[in-house]
Amino acid sequence: DATDLVPFFECPKCGVETQPGEACWNETCELCPLYDRAKAEAKQAEKDAVAKKTIDATGKHVCPGFIDLHTHYDAQIFWDPYCTLSGWHGVTSVVIGNCGFGYAPCAPEMRSRAMKTMERTEAVPYEAQEKGMPWDWESFPEYLDSVERTPKGVNIMSFIGLNPVMTTVLDNVAAAMAGMLAHGHALAPPEEGRRYVAATMLGNTTQAVGALKDELAEHGIETVVFHSNGVGGPAMEELAAEGQFMGVIDYTTNEINDPLVGGIHNGGPDRLRVVGRLGIPQVLVPGCIDFSVWAASSIPENMADRPVYDHNPEYTLVRATHEEKKLMGRIFAERVNESTAPVHIVMPLRGLSIPATPEGPFWDPEGDQLFLAELRANLRGGITVETTDHHINDPDLGRLVAERFLTLITTKE
After folding, report:
1. φ, ψ at 124 (rounded to 5°)
2. How far apart are CA 113 and CA 106, in angstroms?
């Protein structure tokens, strides 16, 4: 066996080097010890074969086909297997279900709406959809099965359209709302023996409010936390008006700042007024009043030169000016002055937000002092302002504020 004699063999007739176990394919080179006549003849037959049609592709790109990633052939595939015109131009694979549109999931009573949507937004004639589709599905997997059964001249991949999914979701939401309006009832007061306190919080104050909550829990008081994002504060005040809380710790009062500059955390003109008017005891902390909140990349030109802090990919925080802090001091005092119940204000001096640290972009002790001075100058008698050497998000500050609240309600009782 030649494979046992040499690591490779050079054919004496044609000079081709042949690895062990391989045959020389040069014509019918019978001099090779590894020559295999059957393989050689098969190889020669391949060379001698003639195609039925030969295309001169000189200077052209030879491609197996193109993929069209954005199409709306969701209906047309059922009556046009080549997805004209895409199939005429070398497209062999298409993706449907784009722009959030599609036909599944779709209950029978929703078919007309789905077809009207495609007629209006993608110019697919309603009559063609109605007569050309088998409509033998309701769920998205059933739609894919129907496409699979349909004869096709191109490959199909489908996204699931957001629009039909959201139609179903929002229809259910509307039905739930109708049910609640028809059969709902007013919010019942807290059960006897249960004591609830409302607290406001942002991501900038999470650790401190968490510590506050734990401290109150040790005294049998449950804390209901509201995200002070423009709707959270007013929602808290609305529930307070319905008698849900024995007291309020308004720890994060930033919602008085955004209305001044057009930010999105706008608590409205009555923010900080409602709870006091209701005669509910409260401890107030000016948490996060040192910034306004904006959607990323939407900061107005007149604020473009201010220090900013990218809170997350969606929101950017913009630092308040000294004049704005002074104005907030007056607003804070004027609104709290309306209170008919005990009020205690705690003012931390080591920063009012996470970026307000000595190394951070919002560090502004001078501006904080301006706020404090205006607050004190405009506050009526009988309301205590306590300063403390803490940062706003310090858990120790949260525990201190909880203690002040416990003292406040004990004094009231």
Report:
1. -90, 115
2. 10
